[in-house]
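Run log, item B.
One chain of 812 residues. Sequence copied directly from the ordering sheet:
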Amino acid sequence: MFGQTTVQGSIVDSNNQPIPFANVLFTGSSIAAVSDFDGKFILTSPENQTFIEFSFMGYETQKVNIEGLSSELSIILKEEASELEEVFVYSGKVKKKGNPAIAILRKIWAKKQQNGTNLFGHYEYDKYEKVSFDMNNLDSSFVNSKVFKGIEFIFDKVDTSDITGKAYLPMFINESVYKSYGKNEGSKKLRQDLIANKNSGFGTNQNVISFIKDLYAEYNIYDNYIKIFDKSFVSPLSKTSGILTYNYVLADSAYLNNRWCYNIVYYPKNKNLLAFKGDFWVNDTTYAIKEISMQASKSANINWIKDLYIEQEFEVLNDSVFVLKKDYMLTDFSFSKKKKSKGMYGRRTTMYDDYIFDEPKPDKFYNKESNVYDRSIYKKPDSFWAENRKESLNSNDQGIYQMLDTLITVPKFKRIYNLVSILGSGYIQFGKFDFGSVYSAIGKNDVEGWRLRLGGKTFFGGNEPWRLQGFTAYGFDDQQFKYGLSGKWMLDQKTRFTIGGGNRRDVEQIGVSLTTTNNLLGRSFASSALFARGANDQLTSINLSNLFFQIEPKKNLELRMGGSYRTLKSASSTFNLDYYANENRVETASEVAQSEVNFSAQYTPGRKMIGYGVERKLFSFHFPTTYLRFSKGLNGVTNQDFDYEKVQLYYRQPVAVGGLGRFFTTVELGKTFGEVPLGLLNVVPGNQTAMVIEKTYNLLNYYEFVTDTYASMHLEHHFNGRIFSRLPLLKKLNLREIVSAKGVWGSISDKNINLNASNIAYKAPEDVYVEYGFGIGNIFKILRVDFVWRGTYRDTPGSDNFGIRGAFGFNF
């Protein structure tokens, strides 16, 4: 079927010790490879081969007939009778003192700012990028299964990886052409204009494409850490951690493209760390990297990835300038790291060409961006692609576009495709409407009892300028229907000027967030939690209508202005929002009716989105967020209006701390000016579920603290297994450590206290409420368990001073 020859196996010496970096060659060809650190190898040829040769310095060359071979080879190399006086085989720890590889590495560090584009104030280049997503590890039983009956034609396009030796079937291809401009003078900047883009396979599925786009991570091998899939791998060229993480061996020296280069092999000292193994060639005068290969350690603490392989090639433009020519990354996604487990390849090939140097451009040029909404970008003819591909498609790739476009029209495949799409997005598509989310269809609380919810939204391909969405829900205990309806319309793509509005009537737990928003169709975890802790009856009936205008004058800067009208009343007989309706504190009211205008600004530098419609998909999650909101209560619209001003600030900053993991800081500040009842105050968010919930305090009950002025800070550090990987009994489990500390200070004015007539006693955390936590993550790859302690307010009646909380998630 494959029309290729693939041989794999292992190479050992007479003592059954693996021989790393042994040479493997198809006899009479130029197709060769070297064994890895464990002596394993894979060699693939597009043609039938008969013999394969194995050789290593100090050992006899062995030639093996591979005709009819059906299993892996196990090769034992014998020492030569007339061997050299001394033969060194490096394994285990390599000493730093006197190691020539370390001396070369230090010269690479000294020269890294004097190589490549760093030498020039301004530079330009063309970039071609191809990303594919492929089913892999196909075998005859899989190919002949009933699942593929009727679509067997897809296997005509099966190919075999030169790196892993596995058969794979492409399911998605995306090609892009960019023109890039960079400058090093002053503040470094890089502008990349998208010239052309071409999709095939899952072309309109934004969820699949956003996942694929995660492969587009930019990295620099000269950096101390290489960030891939939200993990910081120690670079083999790292100045701060390289020597601490890797063993280095000077393995060879030779001419590469008429430049004398050294070959250095490296491998991690601790296999459980986020590190690579491989080798690189470095020039002997400029100490610029000519070629490098990096393969993630099999035991590295990263989930759902069985293999991660990177190659980079650099081109010599003149005697002193080495620039990136090719960057290749292959990722083998799989639920298991077992050898025969099936999964998906994510492959990215990036080619760089036509470098131009020292043609200055003004600073304002770099601040502009190409118009990615220009439809001509996505409709380039085949002649354009034939001319602008820096790497030609092979004969197998050339038929992939047609095969994928045909496949997506086959009813049987569409059913499989739709099932996977439902599981990923939570929505079921019927024509131009998506029903969902299926994950919020069932809920439970003390007021509604069991609750059923049916919702949906319009869908015309994912990039439409307008959208309508809504839901209806029914509670079996309160026997009431709820609903929500909203719509929004983007009037200008360039500034993303959007108008929207809607109405929602629902039952909600409002005391679970400090920073308020007017999210029409959202619903907090607290009012639908299937695993609640304590009573869940302090719920509020909400009737909210709003209208808003939103614009993005600068990338990732969103300005929003709106107005709202809402009524709030208790949904439970055991809880109320009552307040005194007159000055003599005699008459009370139980419903709040409030009109409000508000303005907010949100800035998220580094955020990456996919799509260009009124709704887009987020595919980068670690960026800072600054959110500022001002709201003004309008008095006199109804008899129950309150005159107030509310200012709130939310700030979240994730920071990658090199090999020590990632640190998250969240700060919230706010103040309400004026007299307002409970429904309009700031309740410190409690958490009466069994789950870890971000932005809440895990040991607080709902409404335990009520404020009109507050300052909150959450600190959380994820070590990503840095500590557990060094403990003998734990390192194989790939567990991850999390530590956290949370604190909140708040106060409430006497006027607001005197206004209160509810059965909630106002109490503000004036002595600062603090809780600490220690968590163990990545249990069975999906579970996190946190142990949480109260640091203050430990004598509060009805509260817990210690708790255990859990969370589920699929994280790399």
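Observations after the first pass:
- The CA atoms of residues 579 and 756 lie 5 Å apart.
- Confidence is low (pLDDT under 50) at residues 82-90.
Flagged for discussion on Thursday.
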